[in-house]
Design goal:
The chain is an alpha/beta fold and about 300 residues long. Helix content is about 50%, strand content about 10%.
């Protein structure tokens, strides 16, 4: 009988240590890593997305790191297709593959498949885009909070594209966006073992604050300066970049912009945990747990 193939998915909030655990596991299982971090796809965004370093990339082969440009049109649907194709190829020679990433939607696309949403009249999105321009993101967020409190709590609320997507489904279908999630599970021809890394909130927040300081020392401001001509792109409307664009526009001081990056990263981490904790099958470990202890848990889940 053919051996079941296993995808070990490492999830958790930003700055918790997913990359290093993924590399240790890849080396232990003699396998390779798929990244499911939607910001690390873009080759122009290296420092601000905390993409694996050259040293880390040399320790284990990674896929979907810096494989796209911010100018490319790339969706979660495209990622699902490419990731599944990559997994099919890897599983020809490997029994186990590692997936690392904090983008819940992208992790979900690979492990469960995308949700089936109804066709929505394009005019609804156009109206919502106008509302964003005229009344700002907050008006859309409040509307979503009323129409679908569950989505308001779990989606990336600072991302206008995500908010508009959820709202257009709510308005066009007359049902909450969240009601369409995970209706039809797509069968996968591999087993998924999900390991979540966590820590006390104070520790998570401290790690985030320190990481932002390190990013600034590594030259995040210069990275953002080079991207300023493209700041209208959706891929750059993200933590670490949008705050420094405000500094470059002379709206904020550098000190305030840096403190906002920390604050928004902490908020993002909180949402990541809310999202990942919805999966009751996730095996949670502490960021300080010994590698052998984690490995024992993983082997028990695989077998």
């Amino acid at each position: 009988m053919e051996k079941t193939k296993t995808l070990i998915s490492i999830v958790g909030p930003t700055a918790i240590g997913k990359t290093s655990l993924g590399i240790k596991l890849a080396n232990h299982f003699n396998t390779e890593i798929i990244s499911a971090d939607s910001r690390q796809f873009f080759k122009e965004m290296s420092i601000g997305t905390a993409a694996p370093t050259l040293d880390e990339l040399s320790q284990a082969k990674h896929y979907f790191i810096h494989n796209k440009s911010i100018l490319d049109d790339y969706s979660v649907g495209s990622f699902e297709k490419e990731a599944l194709k990559t997994l099919d190829n890897l599983f020809k020679s490997k029994d186990t593959v590692i997936m690392v990433g904090g983008s819940g939607l992208y992790v979900n696309a690979v492990t469960n498949g995308l949700d089936n949403f109804p066709e929505i009249d394009k005019s609804i999105r156009e109206t919502l885009n106008l509302q964003l321009i005229n009344n700002g993101l907050e008006s859309l967020q409040l509307q979503l909070k009323t129409l679908d409190p569950k989505s308001f709590e779990t989606i990336e609320i600072a991302n206008p594209k995500r908010v508009i997507r959820a709202l257009e489904i709510c308005i066009g279908s007359g049902k909450p966006y969240s009601s369409f999630l995970q209706k039809n599970k797509n069968k996968r021809n591999f087993k998924v073992v999900t390991i979540g890394i966590t820590a006390d909130r104070d520790i998570i927040y401290d790690r985030i604050n320190r990481r932002v300081d390190i990013m600034m020392d590594l030259g995040l401001l210069n990275e953002v300066k080079q991207l300023e001509p493209h700041k209208a792109l959706n891929s750059l409307n993200t933590v670490g970049y949008k705050e420094l664009f405000k500094y470059l526009d002379n709206q904020w001081t550098l000190e305030f912009a840096t403190s906002e990056i920390k604050k928004n990263s902490r908020r993002f981490a909180k949402r990541q945990l809310t999202w990942f904790k919805r999966n009751t099958k996730t095996c949670w470990v502490d960021y300080k747990d010994d590698f052998d202890f984690i490995l024992t848990k993983i082997n028990a889940l695989i077998n």
